[in-house]
Amino acid sequence: MSVVASIGREARALLGDGKARPFVAIAGTWGTLLGARMIYPVLLPYFRETYGLSLSVAGLLVTVLWLGSALGQLPGGILADRYSERSVMTAGTVVVAVAIAAVVSAPSALFLFAATALVGVGQSLYPIARITMLADLYPDRIGSALGATMATGDLGQTVLPPIAAAIAAAVAWQAGLGFIAPLLVVAAVALWAALPRSADADAGGVDELSTDTARRVLAELRRQNVVLIAFILFLYILIWQAFTGLYPTYLVEEKGLASATASLLFSLFFAVGVVVKPVAGATYDRVGLRWSLVAVLAGPVVGFAILPLVEGLPALVAVTALVSPMLGSGAITQSYFSDAFSDSVRGTGLGVVRTATATLGAAGPVLFGTLADRGYFDEGYWLIGGVILVVIVLTLRIADGDGEQ
User: What positions does the domain Major facilitator superfamily (MFS) profile occupy (predicted)?
Assistant: First the structure.
């Protein structure tokens, strides 16, 4: 079958049988939420100037955003199991819109940090409900569905940060972030209108995180090498957040690029993900976790090894493109976890894994910022490449059949 025919088949499977409206609403809102989150690294130089932040404190601001994005995922998963994916996703979207309005009016650094934490908490309500909804809509194509929605996330991260940078340069950084709030209000209305009402019904999920529920989740965590793959996910989140949190700042302060050029190069990183994530998700559906994960991580090892050594825009474009396939990791590991848990505790199980890994991984930006403050910006990227190499070695140790389809 040709590539075009294969793409057409996947598109018909995702959008046919009345699934187009909920899919577009879920994916479009996800792209807007992630695009809003990735505006932060682009605006860090403005935050540093306005509030007098050092590199390490600026990294801490991004860590607070990621930490907030992690902490609500377990409650969000429990709510998705017990109540309504539609209600949970809509509520999270509205909270982010309100929190962004608070960020752009922040009178002090302390207020900025508090409002940023609220942005993260609102975003944390969305991911697990999104996955459980997609698992219900696409029980046999979760990899493709999740990969496609994650690609729209990268589309948002590609398009919105340079728009924000341009608006910030022309008007003010507050306008560069604030324009997202009305978009999220529209997205919340679209979610409520498009998602099926059946999602509001109790489907027999857990009522609360009781002892019995915890026992069931822990029992499933012991199956199919889930703990090892969760550790791999943690390492990936740690390095991904460290890289994305300070990459535009690195390009400006260490490579001498203009802020607008740095934001475009940052967008290129996510633009590649628009292609990589659907391919990675579909590959997972066909060959399983191990080899699909190794395939998307091999190039980034080389990219991070040479990044501190290259100069000039063409070379930086090439290295950024070489690093970008790491974005496919999320589509692969999250598809695996969706398959690993039974329907009755899928949201709770995903919430446990995502909250634990993302909470620990949120330390990445502040740790990386601390290294940069001490003069080890370049060496930090070599460290990231080394951690990715460890992830590859751990992935290859997964026994045949574990994580495979």
Answer: 1-403
Query: Three-class SS of residue 139?
Result: coil
The Cα–Cα gap between 370 and 243 comes to: 13
Apex CA 338: angle with CA 36 and CA 280, to 5°? Answer: 65
pLDDT in tens, 187-241: 999 999 988 765 444 444 444 555 666 677 677 666 657 788 888 888 888 888 8
Q: In terms of pLDDT, which residue wins out, 148 or 24?
A: 24
pLDDT of residue 50 exceeding 50: yes
C-beta of residue 77 within 8 angstroms of C-beta of residue 348: yes
Global pTM value: 0.73
pLDDT for position 214: 67
End-to-end distance of the chain based on CA atoms, in angstroms? 21
Dist. CA 86–CA 27, nearest whole Å: 13
Per-residue pLDDT tens over the stretch 27-45 = 999 999 999 998 998 898 8
**Residue among 185, 200, 2 at smallest CA distance from 84:** 200
Tens of pLDDT, residue by residue over 89-135, are 999 999 999 999 999 999 999 999 999 999 999 999 998 888 888 88
**Backbone φ/ψ region at 225: left (φ over 0), alpha (ψ -120 to 50), beta:** left
359 membership: H or E segment, kind and range: helix 346-361
> Hey, CA dihedral for 147, 204, 401, 333, is it positive or negative?
positive
Rounded distance between C-alpha atoms, residue 216 and residue 141, angstroms: 25
Does 2 reside within a domain? no
Q: What single-letter DSSP state applies at residue 89?
A: H
Q: Give domain status of residue 405, yes or no.
A: no
For residue 314, CA distances in Å to 243, 265, 393 come to: 20, 10, 31
CATH of the domain at 258: 1.20.1250.20
Is 404 part of a structural domain of the chain?
no
Is position 368 within any domain?
yes
Q: Which amino acid is at 162?
A: P
CA distance 401 to 225: 10
Give the model's pLDDT for residue 8: 62
- State residue 148 phi and psi, 5-degree precision: -70, -45
Instruction: Extract the tokens encoding 42.
Output: 């682009």
188 burial class (0-12, 13-18, 19+ CB within 10 angstroms)?
buried
What is the SS3 assignment for 277? Answer: helix
Overall number of domains in the chain: 1
d(CA 246, CA 79): 33
